[in-house]
């Protein structure tokens, strides 16, 4: 199975800050990585697919980059509603593994 | 609107069985592959299983292979997860999720990105 490592596990940032979350995979997965946002008690929400494609309806302050084994999710200007846990997911090969999550809090 | 609604969760003893359902509405269910994903209490997401649009292809996580069976009824617009030989470590919220699909003028393809999720159904395996 492909192992996923997200960093940091948690972070706290202020409204308006630029925030970056990193996901590293145990082997190359080309561009086949998705990002999800999950708020407490809710289902996850797709943010990015194929590493850098923005899902319809997701604010443009979210962006993704990377290929191979190193990927990033960036929030260009943090908003209060962005408080959530973020997960990366590889879909290069089954089983489709997720990162352990990054909990983002607003200061 | 486009929606997935899970049901069938509950408290079950170890070794027993349970069947989860996922009812789809607002889209052509038979066009889409569908996944099950679970989340243990306070933990991250774990992919469980996937079924192709027509039910001909199924894949499972090793942790459930041989115990869980994914199936679908495209006439009833419903997905199922038959869970048997349940273990305490199967305790989780179970989500069904639609596989994102895009179509050009000539063909359609899957992204293997989960664009629509249900609200989840809670399964507790405990004696």
Q: What this model shows, in words?
A:
The complex is a heterodimer of chains A (107) and B (127). Chain A has no helices and 10 strands. Chain A is mostly beta strands and 107 residues long. Chain A has strands at 4-7, 10-13, 19-25, 33-38, 45-49, 53-54, 62-67, 70-75, 84-90, 102-106. In chain A, strand 4 (33-38) and strand 5 form a beta hairpin. In chain B, the strands form 2 sheets. In chain B, strands 2, 4, 5, 6, 9, 10 and 11 form a 7-stranded mixed β-sheet that branches. A 4-stranded antiparallel β-sheet of chain B has the order 1-3-8-7, with no helix packed on it. Helices cover 0% and strands 56% of the residues of chain B. Chain B has 127 residues and is mainly β. Chain A binds chain B through residues 1, 32, 34, 36, 38, 42-46, 49-50, 55, 87, 89, 91, 94-101, and chain B through 35, 37, 44-47, 50, 59, 61-62, 95, 97, 100, 111-115, 117-120.
Shape of chain A: globular
Please report the two chains with the greatest interface, counting residues with C-beta closer than 8 angstroms to the partner's C-beta: A-B, 24 and 22 residues
| Poorly predicted parts of chain A | none
N- to C-terminal distance of chain B: 39 Å
Cα Rg of chain A: 13 Å
List how many beta strands of chain B DSSP finds.
11
What form of chain B results from the Cα inertia axes? Answer: elongated
Structural class of chain A: mainly beta
Question: How many strands appear in the DSSP assignment of chain A?
Answer: 10
Range of strand content of chain B: over 45%
The radius of gyration over CA of chain B amounts to 14 Å
Give the overall average pLDDT of chain A.
97
Helix count of chain B, per DSSP?
A: 0
């Amino acid at each position: 199975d492909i192992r996923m490592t997200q960093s940091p596990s948690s972070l706290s940032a202020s409204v308006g800050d630029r925030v970056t979350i990193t996901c590293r995979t145990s082997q190359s997965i080309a561009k086949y990585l998705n990002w999800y946002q999950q708020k407490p008690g809710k289902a996850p929400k797709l943010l990015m697919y194929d590493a850098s494609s923005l899902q319809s309806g997701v604010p443009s302050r979210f962006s993704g980059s990377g290929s191979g084994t190193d990927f990033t999710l960036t929030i260009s200007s943090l908003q209060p509603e962005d408080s959530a846990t973020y997960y990366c997911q590889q879909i290069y090969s089954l089983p489709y593994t997720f990162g352990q999550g990054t909990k983002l809090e607003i200061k | 609107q486009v929606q997935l609604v899970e049901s069938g969760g509950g408290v079950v003893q170890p070794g027993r069985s349970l069947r989860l359902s996922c009812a789809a509405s607002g889209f052509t269910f038979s066009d889409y592959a569908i996944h099950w994903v679970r989340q243990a209490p306070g933990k991250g997401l774990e992919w469980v299983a996937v079924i192709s649009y027509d039910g001909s292809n199924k894949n499972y996580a090793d942790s459930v292979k041989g115990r869980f069976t994914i199936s679908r009824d495209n006439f009833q617009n419903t997905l199922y997860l038959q869970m048997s030989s349940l273990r305490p470590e199967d305790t989780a919220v179970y989500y069904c999720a639609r596989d994102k699909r895009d179509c050009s003028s000539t063909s359609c393809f899957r992204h293997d990105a989960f664009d629509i999720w249900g609200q989840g159904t809670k399964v507790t395996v405990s004696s």
